[in-house]
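Let's study today's protein:

:::
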Amino acid sequence: MTNTHSYPIGQAGQKWQDAEKAQWLAVQNVKRSYADDVLSQVDVLANHFDIEQYASLNYASGTFPLFTLKSLNWDKSKPNVLITGGVHGYETSGVFGALRFAATAAQDYQDKFNFLIVPCVSPWAYETINRWNPEAIDPNRSFYANSPAQESAALMQLVADVEFLMHIDLHETTDTDNSEFRPALGARDAVEHKEWAIPDGFYTVGDTLKPSPELQKAIIESVEKVTHIAPADESGRLIGEVLQQKGVINYATKELGLCAGVTDAKFVSTTEVYPDSPKVSAENCIQAQVAAITGALNFVYKN
């Protein structure tokens, strides 16, 4: 369906220039604290992981240190697993799902895998509850060479020399995708904006080139014990994409510059939680992210 929301910045048919981007940035404000909410939890995990600062984001509004949690006594004989959250900072359960897994279930798998966990790729966007970074760039469309997004470039550099067996990237699909973020995208790029029906429930996104349907099925079955799975819309799609199996669609991750394509891992999945559903709570959303990770790990370990 066509967008019914006009956007207050820019002129129809004209892409944003620096003036419009500055106007957009001027109306963003801090709503929560990366240091208080995220870094405080990272610090508590110092006895279970090597905590390493892998980069800093430097913006006019301030500097944000980026941290990763790395398995203690990294063992080259074990397969490596990458877990990322907060690529879109407003997608809250991705951040806290990664942290919750690190604080709880990760200990059950440390003898089987090496973990590299990046709980919050985009801390400025976390604080301002945004999809974009301060330069009006979407980090989750910017994982490619010479990336214009500091967040994406930093993560790419972090993982460049590491071979991963699995990567799971934790996301959400929210009502604000239609009410704010897609209208802003249409205005920024001067393109016609199409709304999509927001799926009511959890779903995953596989990689078109390596869809791993059995992995996605294992994730769905694990999450289904915690929360409900999104049904397809009346056209058999989720967010405009053809349903591949229950709760699963596929994207061309590398072509689109998505975080899920940042490595050459054999097993790849992007989770999508729906936090605006009346059937869930913030805690339930976090549990769903953890269930997705453990479901994926159990599958990979057995296969």
